[in-house]
Design brief:
The complex is a heterodimer of chains A (549) and B (570). By secondary structure, chain A is an alpha+beta fold. Chain A has 20 helices and 14 strands. Classes of the chains: A alpha+beta (549), B alpha+beta (570).
């Protein structure tokens, strides 16, 4: 097995572990193919089980004959291992470096993980496109499920089944695919039941420097318009950026060819800028020595909250066009796999109450991120401690989760899930025992045979005993469209992720428990009162004389 | 009434600040105490604004739709009106400008405010807060501390209360001598006594030490305070000013304690800026809150540039230092600044809140404000501009204290019996003068004004509405309710107080509040409990006992499952 070659020193005794908020532990450090394990050999002390894949970066320091390894994790935690013996320390460090950056997906832990629980409901079969299409069919007959991409040849980043306008045949789709970036022809993203309006997404049109046009493309999207109505194209790039894209063969829909559409440009940054923003933000959060001025200026300089604001604003715009203007919307950026998905998925959270349930949110992630071809493996290969040359790493999905958290914070009663659920998705997108977030597209997942070879995150999460920790006790189904405030004063740093390891959340956890307790006690009483009322009613009908006040 | 030129203006439009395109049409009335806007709708919704709460009345350039008038309030609310006739607009502006700047106490609304209480009820209301009772609660008088009559009739210090608590060994001559050596006679007296370990917090003004002056009596006084904490070998003197400011005061014959003259003291400077810096800083943060659709960069830059959170942190750090000295080191602390009525009040009261769970209850918080602020001569009328007087005396000292409490609530959501709404309401009352509590600048001035006979006390009024002001997460037996609070004061722990400084966005902020949801749930729970207990009275044992089950349920608390969310703290 090739892991063994990478592990020169499989175990070291007398290693001291430093972790946030926990006392020091001394014990034996073991390296396995997928884990870094520290065992104190005492029953009551918690051990460290850390996935190599969760390690973002390590630093080595030496004092005398002993060394220290600082392990920076993708979930932003920083732990320290004091290792006696220079050679041992170097060996451990180089093994961790090698094991945490394995190239081959098939060597990843999810392929080796065997669940300790019984899979009752297989997450891999939970959110099939044909099932969700049935729901759509019950509302409208204007769309059809196309198999044009069944072998992933038309669009490698699309799933085998996509929803397209009924009157558009597969030949047309083929032509349109050649006119859109990455073959990403416009597909249905969301159907707004309330007024029948839709949101579509695509890659940029390849008009190039000469203003190429594609009649089929125009026809396809025009087919989604109601007679006499205009639609909106939301381009997630600034006008200048979209202009520049023409020189490289891309571009945007020109007014002359799309007279029924109004194009709006918004500025959502590209991945390298976002990754840089994450690195700066986490650096600011981790430095406790800052003065207030320095903290605020670093927070500002990271631009993270500006990105949040921009993404949320664009999502609100899309939702507004659909719900308030009663218009059809097409969203795209360049590839249509990053900012586009942030916008379409957040807009659905605002518009569609079902996306605010636990299952609905899972379905949204499955539909708008996994099936829609967000390249998770590339984007989440490195997190905030990454350095050196990057290969498309970017916190696109984390930004989406952060935006969701901002909405949840403003509408604390409208979501069935709580913050923990969002944190969980963040962690598993970056390092996991489950197969859900492996690969970059449906095509890759099919090649890797993930459903057969790995366990789905949803199989685990949806077990009642796990679910319990993710349910928002304040949840009251709210069938309305929700409109969050995107004013800077309304947006906050997501402490649950960014300050999670820097300040104890004990008091906030206690408050949460208190809230759970208050609500459960209330439910219990309600149950009791209802049963008493029933008993009373029964007694009364039986005609027994009662003298209740 | 002679100041009201136009008592009624019709067809006035009140503009919705959250959506300037929306407005309501109605009639504006000016009474002697309020501006009242009544909507011309079926509901006839009314908006009342106290004149004494108005901080400025501006008249932006005339627009085609009418004559705009912007009324800014001291609690940062803003009302925008459009008045059809220019003359009416000018009249309203002139009237309001005059009415909002009374020249004599007698013009303030508390003297005309009549909540229909008879004399007994009014007197009873004034005795609602019992400061002697609070010292008794702390275990004072004791064999170490006594209540001195030295300041009866405000003979020694006219800005101090008449009841003062000093160490047993501080004789009247020591008191008088020490008072002579302190700015405005504000000699060291007891503010808080920590029963657990006999450490105390005393407060005073700066000593008149200059470069070389000393006073045996003042040194004896400090020694006596230290000795009143038998287990300790030294005490802290916390000068809440930046060291540079304190040094500059020496040139004026004031300054700070010379460690060579006072044995066994450790001097500590905290660096809270003066009232002028704070006034300017607050103006900047108000501006930040009122910018229309700022970018994130503008907002964060404005927040940093205002320096406001830095100042809040300084006040909090002062409180944390004192509380740590008292609770963890068991060392007594003397706190002073220059006059000992602004920064000293902030530092002492923040420390008391951290140390003593009682001050985190609704009643206890009232006691604390009455003690450390009202009785000890915080100059309310000067600081909050109750009368038309020197604008340089105005400063948001109390605002900062209330904000420190709010920041603490964010960190300890279960620790306080009262909620954010209570802090905001209190802030409004401090400025509005509808009640007499916060009038004038000292106990003596209030006595001379016969406040207790002529005005009403705000505390019973607030107490009556306690359901409105209670924190649903508070439980007297919760661990956060007990003992000393140890807040983290890393910069990222301080947040922009949106409910205070961004009232513009109020409507949207009110969308969903977890606290309000929980309060509703708790209320319903109470009703259910009542219903259950009625059912229990059903005869012949037809119903099995619910009480026992209830109990077992409430004891069988969840073990959490590592749940974590800070919704309720937002």
């Amino acid at each position: 097995m090739e892991f063994a070659e990478l592990i020169k020193t499989p175990r070291v005794d007398g290693v001291v572990l430093h972790r946030p908020f926990l006392p020091l532990v001394e014990g034996t450090l073991c390296l396995t193919g997928h884990h870094l394990i520290l065992s104190s050999r005492q029953d009551n002390t918690e051990e460290l089980w850390l996935l190599h894949a969760d390690i973002d970066f390590i630093e080595k320091r030496f004092v005398g004959s002993s060394g220290t390894i600082i392990v920076k994790c993708k979930d932003l935690r920083i732990i320290q291992l004091d290792i006696p013996g220079m050679e041992e320390c170097l060996n451990i460090a180089s093994s961790i470096e090698a094991l945490s950056t394995l190239d081959s997906v098939s060597l990843m832990y999810p392929f080796f993980y065997r669940p300790m629980f019984e899979v009752i409901e297989d997450g891999w079969n939970l959110f099939l496109p044909e099932e969700s299409f049935k729901d759509l069919e019950s509302m409208t007959d204007e769309w059809r499920l196309s198999e044009v991409n069944r072998d992933f040849s038309i669009c490698p980043s699309y799933p085998p089944l996509v929803v397209v306008p009924k009157d558009t045949d597969d030949d047309t789709l083929l032509k349109v695919a050649s006119f859109r970036h990455g073959g990403r022809f416009p597909v249905l993203s969301y159907y707004h039941k309330k007024n029948g309006m839709v949101m579509m997404r695509a890659g940029q049109p390849l008009i190039g420097p000469n203003g190429r046009r594609c009649k089929e493309d125009e026809k396809l999207i025009n087919a989604t318009l109601r007679a006499g109505k205009r639609g909106y194209i939301i381009d997630t790039r600034a006008t200048a950026v979209a202009q520049q894209a023409k020189a490289r063969g891309g571009g945007f829909e020109q007014e002359a060819n799309y007279p029924q559409w109004r194009r709006i440009h918004k500025t959502i940054e590209r991945y390298s800028v976002l990754q840089d923003s994450l690195i700066k933000l986490v650096e600011a959060c981790n430095d406790q020595s800052h003065s207030m001025d320095r903290w605020l200026s670093k927070l500002e300089a990271s631009n993270w909250l500006s990105h949040i604001k921009e993404i949320l604003t664009t999502a609100c715009l899309a939702a507004q066009c659909i719900d308030r203007e009663g218009a059809t919307v097409l969203v795209h950026g360049t590839e249509g796999t990053d900012s586009t998905l942030q916008v379409t998925s957040l807009a659905q959270i605002l518009l569609d109450p079902s996306c605010r349930t636990i299952r609905g949110f899972q379905a949204l992630v499955e539909r708008e991120w996994l099936q829609a071809g967000h390249p998770f493996q590339h984007r989440c290969a490195q997190s905030a401690y990454s350095s050196g040359k990057l290969h498309g790493e970017a916190p696109i999905f984390l930004l989406f989760l952060d935006c969701t958290w901002q909405i949840l914070r403003q509408f604390p009663c409208s979501f069935e899930f709580n913050e923990n659920f969002l944190v969980l998705l963040f962690e598993h997108a970056y390092a996991t025992q489950f197969g859900t977030f492996l690969g970059n597209s449906a095509a890759e997942r099919a090649t890797l045979k993930l459903p057969q070879k790995t366990v789905s995150l949803w199989s685990w999460v949806n077990r009642p005993q796990e679910m319990e920790g993710f349910v928002n006790p304040l949840y009251e189904p709210n069938s309305l469209v929700i409109w969050p405030s995107v004013a800077p004063q309304s947006l906050q740093l997501w402490e649950g992720v960014f300050l999670r390891w820097n300040r104890s959340s004990k008091c906030l956890d206690e408050a949460y428990e208190e809230m759970v307790h208050i609500i459960e006690y209330n439910k219990e009483l309600q149950k009791k009162v209802n049963s008493l009322r029933r008993q009373l009613a029964q007694l009364e009908t039986e005609g027994s004389p009662l003298h209740t006040p | 009434m002679e100041n009201i030129r136009t008592p009624k203006v019709e067809h006035v439009r009140l503009i919705d600040r959250t959506n300037p395109r929306r407005c309501s049409v109605g009639t504006l009335y000016l009474s002697s105490t309020h501006s009242i806007f009544v909507e011309n709708t079926e509901a006839r919704r009314e908006t009342w604004v106290l004149h004494s709460l108005v901080s400025s009345v501006e008249r932006p350039p005339v627009s085609p739709s009418g004559n705009p008038l912007v009324i800014r309030c001291k609690n940062f609310q803003v009302f925008q009106l459009l008045i059809p006739q220019e003359k009416d607009c000018l009249d309203v502006q002139a009237s309001l400008s005059r009415l909002s700047r009374p020249e004599r106490y007698g013009e303030l609304s508390c003297f005309s405010f009549n909540p229909n209480l008879n004399k007994e009820a009014r007197d009873e209301a004034w005795s609602f807060i019992d400061l002697r009772g609070d010292y008794v609660r702390m275990g004072i008088p004791s064999n170490l501390w006594y209540i001195t009559a030295a300041n009866s009739e405000y003979r020694v210090c006219d800005t101090y209360p008449s009841d003062l608590y000093v160490p047993k060994s501080a004789t009247p001559s020591v008191i008088v001598g020490s008072a002579k050596f302190r700015s405005r006679g504000r000699f060291p007296v007891l503010s808080y006594y920590h029963r657990d370990n006999s450490a105390s917090i005393c407060r005073s003004s700066q000593p008149l030490s200059g470069f070389s002056a000393r006073s045996t009596e003042d040194e004896q006084m400090i020694q006596a305070i230290m000795k009143s904490n038998p287990a300790s070998e030294f005490m802290y003197v916390v000068d809440t000013r930046p060291k540079l400011n304190a040094m500059a005061n020496r040139a004026a014959g004031k300054g700070y304690e010379n460690e060579d003259h006072y044995t066994n003291i450790k001097l500590q400077f905290i660096g809270i800026e003066n009232i002028h810096v704070m006034r300017n800083s607050q103006q900047k943060i108000i501006d930040v809150g009122q910018v229309r659709s700022p970018s994130m960069g503008d907002f964060l830059w404005g927040l940093e540039n205002s320096g406001w959170l830095k100042h809040i942190k300084a006040v909090m750090d002062a409180g944390v230092f004192i509380a740590r000295a008292v609770a963890e080191e068991g060392i007594s602390v003397l706190v002073h600044c220059s006059d000992g009525w602004d920064r000293t009040a902030q530092a002492c009261s923040v420390a008391s809140i951290l140390l003593d769970p009682y001050y985190r209850t609704l009643k206890g918080f009232m006691v604390l404000i009455e003690k450390d602020w009202v009785a000890f001569g915080h100059k309310f009328s000067h600081r909050y501009g109750h009368l038309d007087s020197d604008p340089k005396e105005i400063s948001p000292v109390m605002d900062q204290f209330l904000e420190c409490v709010w920041q603490l609530m964010e960190q300890f959501p279960c620790a306080f019996e009262f909620n954010e709404r209570f802090l905001l309401q209190l802030h409004t009352y401090v400025y509005s003068c509808q009640y007499g509590n916060f009038l004038a600048n000292s106990q003596k001035e209030r006595r001379d004004l016969r406040i207790q006979e002529r005005t009403h006390s705000v505390w019973p009024h607030l107490w009556k509405d306690q359901a409105e002001y209670s924190n649903p997460l508070y439980r007297a037996d919760h661990s956060q309710t007990q003992g000393v609070l140890r807040p983290v004061t890393t910069p990222y722990c301080f947040k922009f107080w949106k409910a205070m400084y961004n009232r513009l966005d109020q409507a949207s902020a009110a969308r969903q509040s977890p606290a309000d949801c929980l309060s509703a749930v708790r209320e319903e729970t109470q009703q259910l409990e009542e219903e259950l207990s009625t059912h229990q009275e059903v005869p012949r044992g037809t119903v099995h006992s619910p009480t026992r089950q209830e109990n077992s349920f409430s004891q069988g608390e969840e073990d959490g499952g590592g749940a974590k969310e800070d919704d309720q703290s937002q």
